[in-house]
Amino acid sequence: MKKITIIAAISVCCMAFVSFSNQAKIAVEVPYPEGYREWTHVKSMLISSKDPKQDHSRGYHHIYANEKAMEGYKTGKFPNGSVIVADFIEMSEMEVGIAEGKRKFIDVMIKNTDRYKDTGGWGYEEFDGDSKEKRLVTQIKAGITCYNCHALKAEKDYVYSTYRE
Ligand code: HEC
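That is the input. Now the predicted structure with heme C docked in place:
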């Protein structure tokens, strides 16, 4: 009887630990933006420069916003829960035009003023290719790379793009 109580106590303790560590993980990690291809298309851009400095971003990118982020594009203030995705696709030069190639990576911004208060209320992440797991930046690194550049747009709530009607 005593043994069972101890085992029960240990498993409750372990369960609490597991759920605590999951929460801690979620608190820093930006979730993969499931279904973003069905969100509102904000705008696109083709970076065709041959400059090696543009190697990472060369190609097409299409920007998508969820419903909350669309409120932000309209009002200039993005509510918590806003998610914006920049979908980077390789360019492939054909005789008559420039086609899309493979997905390079996606850049994600998610608004949560408590969770990401050190980076202007936005969490930043980059997912490699079509992967939902392979993260190319961590929150700490994102604070230096992504955030530093987006901070130049602090007066626009850290968002560069504007919605093309
Ligand atoms: C050197 C500056 C710079 C850096 C570094 C940078 N961005 Fe951006 N980002 C931009 C610009 C400029 C745009 C607007 C592109 C457009 O209008 O098509 C943009 C657009 C975006 C968008 C669409 C929302 C918006 O602000 O328009 C997301 C999402 C995004 N970036 C995420 C990231 C992530 C994640 C990182 C880090 C991995 C990152 N960015 C690093 C300059 C930067």
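The radius of gyration is 20 Å.
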